[in-house]
Amino acid sequence: MKKFFTTIKNIFSIEDLRIRILNTLGFLIVFRLGSFIVLPGVDPDALGSGAQGGIFDLLNTFLGGSFSRASIFALGIMPYISASIVIQLLTVAVPYFQKLQKEGESGRKRLTQITRVLTIAITLAQSAGYLAATIPSEAVLYTQSFFQVSSMIILVAGTMFCMWLGEKITDKGIGNGISMLIMIGIISRFPGSIVSEAMTRGMSGALAFVLEIVALFFVVMAVVMLTQAVRRIPIQYAKQVIGNKLYGGKRDYIPLKVNASGVMPIIFAQALMFIPPLIAGIWKESEVGAYIGSTFADPYSWQYNLVFGILILLFTFFYTAITVNPNDIADNLKRNGGFIPGIKPGKQTSEFIDQVLTKITLPGSIFLAIVAVLPAFAVKAGISPNFAQFYGGTSLLIMVGVILDTLQQIESYLLMRHYEGMMKSGKVKGRSQIAAA
């Protein structure tokens, strides 16, 4: 306990880190307050409990309940994530976007502008589906046409404000802003889910509840192991004589994470899984719309989980390919006089790193997909859907990934100021180590 309080004291004794933490807390408070502001022209009492089941409960978890409350942040940051997916796919397939990606800061600014415009278009489409599928006509106090237009504009403004908050958290706070906004929505519903599960079990089901908590603990440990697992490639630096001193000759390693893409494949896949039910809400009277809505509105159906798992596999390889470049790693090694023992520098080093990356990404992506669909098995085992969402799945993966990344950033500040790290032995590892490699 003394170690804990000492660490907290060290964290807040660093002015820059203290300001960033307070900024992050302030932005998150604004985000949470906004999730309770209901759309103008909506009668909150006529919305009911908001427990519509299926995909709506899952959306409620990610958005901290703002989805069921018809909040101005009802769509949250999800349209921006969908737009980011489209832009990243275009940077792989379209030469114009590839050129922008290679133009440095000016190209990134241009891509950011395109992403924001696309976010507005996606938000307009999703807002139409949201209003049609979730808000009953008796809850609308205005004329339907005026309410539809004004609410779509407000929802677009709310999503853009959430995007701005995420960017501000990344620039002036701690952690990745977009992921932090999703995580705070998940955590806000976690205590209530535990209490509800305990009350449902009652005294007669106390043993079953304890077993659920124990199982949850081991699932969390498995997710942490997946997030932290690293394949080390040994490297050797050649000796160089500069003046009268000998440099180099040391041994080191390249840390390639088994899950190098972190939580992003889950976020990307989940963002795409939200689209079919919202679109189906627009054509809910048609046979095709009814089938899509009934199939993909249930996150525990085998069709939903099959598509979800496949998307995670694809996005894991895709995101790993665009974040970890074997050619750049090989060039940096060659430039600094480093080499992998038994492998020639240059092209062969790049091919070797690519082979290793492919071998560790495949089991990592499969395990990631298995963890992502665990809530469906938890529901089949008799656990309530609200609590089962934290039994692996997107909720737990996002929480673990974001928390570890944030702790790694805090530890970096401590070590730079020559304070002791957050743990007595070892270090908190985050995705930033891949960039360093």
UniProtKB/TrEMBL annotation:
Per UniProt, the keywords (alphabetical) are: Cell membrane, Membrane, Protein transport, Translocation, Transmembrane, Transmembrane helix, Transport
Per its UniProt record, what Gene3D superfamilies does this chain match?
SecY subunit domain
What is the recorded membrane topology of this protein? Answer: Multi-pass membrane protein
The answer to whether the entry has keyword Ribosomal protein is no
Protein's UniProt keywords contain Transmembrane helix: yes
| Transmembrane feature ranges | 21-39, 72-97, 117-135, 147-166, 173-191, 203-226, 260-283, 303-325, 356-378, 390-407
Query: What biological-process GO terms show up in the record?
Result: intracellular protein transmembrane transport; protein targeting; protein transport by the Sec complex
Q: Where in the cell is it found?
A: Cell membrane; Membrane
Write down the superkingdom of origin. Bacteria
Q: Which GO terms describe its cellular component?
A: plasma membrane
Which PANTHER family does the UniProt entry name for this protein?
Answer: SECY/SEC61-ALPHA FAMILY MEMBER
What family does the Swiss-Prot or TrEMBL record give for this protein?
A: Belongs to the SecY/SEC61-alpha family.
Subunit relationships: Component of the Sec protein translocase complex. Heterotrimer consisting of SecY, SecE and SecG subunits. The heterotrimers can form oligomers, although 1 heterotrimer is thought to be able to translocate proteins. Interacts with the ribosome. Interacts with SecDF, and other proteins may be involved. Interacts with SecA.
Q: Which HAMAP family match?
A: SecY
Role summary: The central subunit of the protein translocation channel SecYEG. Consists of two halves formed by TMs 1-5 and 6-10. These two domains form a lateral gate at the front which open onto the bilayer between TMs 2 and 7, and are clamped together by SecE at the back. The channel is closed by both a pore ring composed of hydrophobic SecY resides and a short helix (helix 2A) on the extracellular side of the membrane which forms a plug. The plug probably moves laterally to allow the channel to open. The ring and the pore may move independently.
Q: What is this protein called?
A: Protein translocase subunit SecY
Source organism phylogeny: Bacteria, Pseudomonadati, Bacteroidota, Cytophagia, Cytophagales
The record's gene field reads: secY
